[in-house]
TrEMBL record:
<keyword id="KW-0560">Oxidoreductase</keyword>
<comment type="pathway">
    <text>Cofactor biosynthesis; (R)-pantothenate biosynthesis; (R)-pantoate from 3-methyl-2-oxobutanoate: step 2/2.</text>
</comment>
<dbReference type="InterPro" id="IPR008927">
    <property type="entry name" value="6-PGluconate_DH-like_C_sf"/>
</dbReference>
<comment type="similarity">
    <text>Belongs to the ketopantoate reductase family.</text>
</comment>
<dbReference type="InterPro" id="IPR036291">
    <property type="entry name" value="NAD(P)-bd_dom_sf"/>
</dbReference>
<feature type="domain" description="Ketopantoate reductase C-terminal">
    <location>
        <begin position="178"/>
        <end position="299"/>
    </location>
</feature>
<dbReference type="GO" id="GO:0015940">
    <property type="term" value="P:pantothenate biosynthetic process"/>
</dbReference>
<feature type="domain" description="Ketopantoate reductase N-terminal">
    <location>
        <begin position="3"/>
        <end position="143"/>
    </location>
</feature>
<keyword id="KW-0521">NADP</keyword>
<dbReference type="InterPro" id="IPR013752">
    <property type="entry name" value="KPA_reductase"/>
</dbReference>
<dbReference type="InterPro" id="IPR051402">
    <property type="entry name" value="KPR-Related"/>
</dbReference>
<dbReference type="Pfam" id="PF02558">
    <property type="entry name" value="ApbA"/>
</dbReference>
<dbReference type="GO" id="GO:0008677">
    <property type="term" value="F:2-dehydropantoate 2-reductase activity"/>
</dbReference>
<protein>
    <recommendedName>
        <fullName>2-dehydropantoate 2-reductase</fullName>
        <ecNumber>1.1.1.169</ecNumber>
    </recommendedName>
</protein>
<dbReference type="InterPro" id="IPR013332">
    <property type="entry name" value="KPR_N"/>
</dbReference>
<dbReference type="Pfam" id="PF08546">
    <property type="entry name" value="ApbA_C"/>
</dbReference>
<dbReference type="InterPro" id="IPR003710">
    <property type="entry name" value="ApbA"/>
</dbReference>
């Protein structure tokens, strides 16, 4: 299978490495020329709990992709998706499948702007990953992914993709309840990521303080209420459990939103807390802690653009 990873940052490199280990033909696509050059010069350096690997995966700029691939895996930030897919139009042929494992809500809709709905797959990942330098990624922690066609597509291709990732070291399943999975992950991120970004601390710090643990519990309960009012029937306890795993097993992982704030980049607050807030308004619900965190991160983002 020929796979283009669109956005060779922390997660793109981690997933590109798994596809590569499983024998797929992988191309890492990014806009950062220095990062591309570093990968092409010495290989992708991936540090996990199992050790450090140097993987000879080619990296390219979007304009260097000139023929259709079988699968595009989108791992840009959510607000970069549309532009990034527009930049690789030549790689999206009539049979090309698109997959997003990005955080947040609405990724299905964003991908369906660039391919027929039956060729759009979505999902979520609980793998942690940090970009630690040019051509260098670190992932310390267990996790996995779930994916499935977003709309009415056939499950066969999703199963093949999941099997490849599992063979490459990221346990992945094709899960028909994918929209419940995505809502649960978005609620988890709405609770964890803004608090990491605002305190400039990792989940282990949040575990030490009643203030953060209380807010995390409340945001999860608020989000589950919104999901259920929107017709997505999920339970709160598995999400509470996931926040506990994050604060203990992934205690030192820099949540992606923390990585963004530290690097002076815009965050994905609109696709996470903002999307839950929009759904709350549509359902006539109030979600005060989710909304406060949303407003705080919007202010943080405003510092970058002003
Ligand atoms: N990091 C993590 O642990 C996790 C992240 N996620 C989600 O995965 C997604 C990716 O996150 P993450 O890997 O951390 O993000 P990164 O910022 O590390 O990676 C995104 C990459 O995409 C590149 N990019 C931007 N625009 C384009 C474009 N037009 N064409 C090609 N590449 C482009 C960026 O370059 P540049 O920096 O120059 O803009 C960057 O290298 C997000 O939705 C995130 O929420 C999900 C689970 C865990
Ligand atoms: C790694 C994980 C699951 C937890 O923080 C994440 O989604 C993120 O960093 O955005």
């Amino acid at each position: 299978m020929k796979i283009a990873i669109l956005g060779a940052g922390a997660m793109g490199c981690l997933y590109g490495a798994a596809f590569h280990r499983a024998g797929a033909e992988v191309l890492l696509i990014d806009v950062d020329q220095a990062h591309i050059d570093a990968i092409n010069a010495g290989g992708l350096e991936l540090e996990t709990r199992a050790g450090t690997e140097m993987l000879p995966i080619p990296a390219l700029r979007p304009d260097q992709l000139d023929a259709p691939v079988d699968l595009v895996v989108v791992f840009t930030k959510t607000f970069q998706t549309d532009r990034a897919l527009g930049g690789i139009a030549a790689a999206i042929g009539p049979d090309t499948q698109l997959l997003s494992l990005q955080n947040g809500l609405g990724n299905d809709r964003r991908l369906a702007e660039h391919a027929a709905p039956e060729r759009v797959m979505v999902g979520a990942s609980t793998m942690p990953s940090d970009l630690i330098g040019l051509g260098k990624v670190r992932s310390h922690g267990e996790g996995g992914s779930r994916l499935f066609p977003a709309f009415e597509g056939e499950a066969d291709f999703a199963v093949r993709v999941a099997d490849l990732l599992t063979a490459g070291g990221i346990p992945t399943t094709a899960d028909p309840a994918i929209h419940q999975v995505i809502w649960s992950k978005a609620i988890f991120n709405a609770a964890m990521n803004p608090l990491c970004a605002l305190t400039l601390r990792t989940p282990g710090f949040l575990f030490l303080h009643d203030e953060s643990r209380d807010m995390i519990r409340t945001v999860v309960d608020e989000g589950v209420g919104v999901a259920r009012a929107s017709g997505v029937m999920i339970e709160a306890q598995p999400i509470h459990d996931l926040t506990h795993v994050s604060m203990t097993d992934h205690a030192n992982h820099e949540a992606s939103m923390l990585q963004d704030v530290k690097a002076g980049r815009r965050t994905e607050i609109d696709a996470i807390n903002g999307a839950i807030l929009d759904a709350a308004h549509a359902a006539g619900l109030s979600v005060p802690v989710t909304e406060t965190l949303y407003r705080m991160l919007r202010l943080q983002d405003a510092k970058i653009s002003t």
